[in-house]
Amino acid sequence: MLFMPFQILGIWLRGLLTVLLLGVGLSLLGYWYSHRERLVTEPVADPRPAPRPGEGDAAAGDQGPFPVPQVGVVHWEFGANRETAALVGGAGCLMWSLGGGWLVSPRFRRRSGAEPPVQDRGEGQTVRCPDGTQLHVEFFGPADADPVVLVHGWGLDSQEWCYAKRELGARYRLIAWDLPGLGRSERPPDRDWALDKLARHLDAVIAAAGGKPVALVGHSIGTMIILTYCGLFPEALGSRVRGLVLAHGTYTNPVRTTHRAGLYTALQKPVLEPLCHLMVWLSPVVRVLNWLSYLNGSAHRSTERSSFSGNESRGQLDFMTRYYCQAPPDVVARGMLAMFRYDASGVLGSIPVPTLVVTGDEDRTCLPEASRLMAATIPGAKLVTLSPAKHCGLFEHHEPFHGAVAEFLDRRSAARPGLTSPLPAAVPAGP
Fold first, then answer.
1. How far apart are CA 93 and CA 398, in angstroms?
2. Cβ distance 302 to 366 under 8 Å?
3. Are residue 80 and residue 174 in the same domain, yes or no?
4. Distance between CA atoms of 322 and 310, rounded to whole angstroms?
5. CATH number, residue 327
6. Nearby residues of 37 by Cβ (< 8 Å), 6 or more positions away
7. Cross-strand partners of 245
8. Is 213 part of any domain?
């Protein structure tokens, strides 16, 4: 799962669904508990002998025992009754909330196999940024190979690049880092996640490459950070940076380049931004709700709809959805607020280094039109379209994606400075 500003609505709606599910379950169980035994008043025969004529108020002719009211207890029995329905319904709601998602989430219908590889940690290093933030950086691959800096999507961490480590790690010096506040990186001391600040963090990571020109590969917000870096450090393009790979990203506020952009743009100020602030203030509560969303399967359904085309494996879907539980909600919300202020449209036409733009043909988070515009505006840029693919197409179709990246990087290494080599217009991903 990747977190974008307009998805704040889904986070809160899933949280409300979780609360509703728990509330209904507890209410039904409460009804069953309070009605499992009930008191009843029934007339019973008084075993005392009837009074003789002239004694008490009894009529002279009364004979034998007479009825008197008596209180009794009726115990609930399992069967076709309201109490049984309340018990079964309440237990079902609680089981669904606390783990029943395995039966109703898309995991149950997805194929097994092709699971994300478990990667050992690379050579770890802590990079201290000028603002005091300490970033966790890991190095993979031969030390003398061409360095490639990997910038993951928002709400994730460097483990998103598990396939890249396996498929590219033998040929390149991969440098994977956790964005501030995510994974093993510290939060910025000033709690500022502005795109300019993240781009300066990227500059600190590039400096750790040992002085060799690097290629930058970004996914989602990683693309935004790279483009912001290009605007802040234009002198580094061509000297410290030799090429860009921009995957499933956008050049401006992502609210404007998503599905139903008109609606989300209208909701940004009155609804989306206040919900982001509320998520910061109620971060512990949202974390609990995200865990319950993961357990009840609603988070998996959201990840399936927004990130995958339906060809992902069970493990791939679960891998991305687990970030619901791992990402700190206040960090995620502050990053969303920063994305509202992002705009790199003025940078595109002045990027002088070779650029590869990757999109998914069914991506509704960052529409393919945004990638096509970037490829058409950045001088000499080439476009690769994964199909069928949504926002995590580079993960679902990792082999075609990394094949295109490797071809791009190899041609950049073989070409003379300033020489642009052709690339295929599209790489079909296949099921």
1. 38
2. no
3. no
4. 18
5. 3.40.50.1820
6. 73, 74, 75, 76
7. 217, 356
8. yes
- For the CA atoms of 105, 109, 115, 116, the dihedral, rounded to the nearest 10 degrees, stands at -40
Beta strands in 141-250 (DSSP E): 147-151, 173-177, 214-219, 241-247
Q: Are 294 and 97 in contact (CB under 8 A)?
A: no
Looking at the fold, whether 101 and 212 belong to one and the same domain comes out as no
Residues 416-429: tens digit of each pLDDT: 444 333 333 334 44
Q: Residue 427 and residue 401: Cα distance in Å, rounded? A: 8
Backbone angles phi, psi at 146, to 5 degrees: -65, 130
pLDDT tens profile 74-117? 677 788 888 889 888 888 888 888 777 666 566 556 666 667 87
> What DSSP line would sit under 35-72, residue for residue?
HSEEEEEEEEE--SPPPPTTSTTS-TT--S--EEEEEE
3 state SS of 425: coil
Residues of the chain whose pLDDT is less than 50? Answer: 58-60, 416-431
Please provide residue 252's backbone torsions phi and psi, each rounded to the nearest 5 degrees. -150, 180
Q: How far apart are CA 174 and CA 215, in angstroms?
A: 10
Same domain? For 159 and 177 the reply is yes
Secondary structure class of 311 (helix, strand, coil) = coil
Q: How many other CB atoms are found less than 10 A from the CB of residue 270?
A: 8
Same domain, yes or no: 38 and 141: no
- Which sign, positive or negative, has the C-alpha torsion 36, 40, 45, 51? positive
In whole angstroms, what is the distance from residue 282 CA to residue 234 CA?
A: 39
Count Cβ atoms within 10 A of the Cβ of residue 118 and give its class: 0-12 exposed, 13-18 middle, 19 or more buried: exposed
Report in angstroms the alpha-carbon separations of 400 from 14, 263, 314, 358, 426: 33, 34, 20, 11, 10
**Both tokens assigned to 207:** 């400096």
pTM: 0.85
| Residue where the block lists tokens 């100020």 | 269
For 93, how many CA atoms within 13 A lie in the half-sphere containing its CB? 19
Same domain, 79 and 192: no
The maximal CA–CA distance of the chain, rounded, in angstroms, is 129
Residue 6 belongs to some domain of the structure: no
Classify residue 102: in a domain, yes or no.
Answer: yes
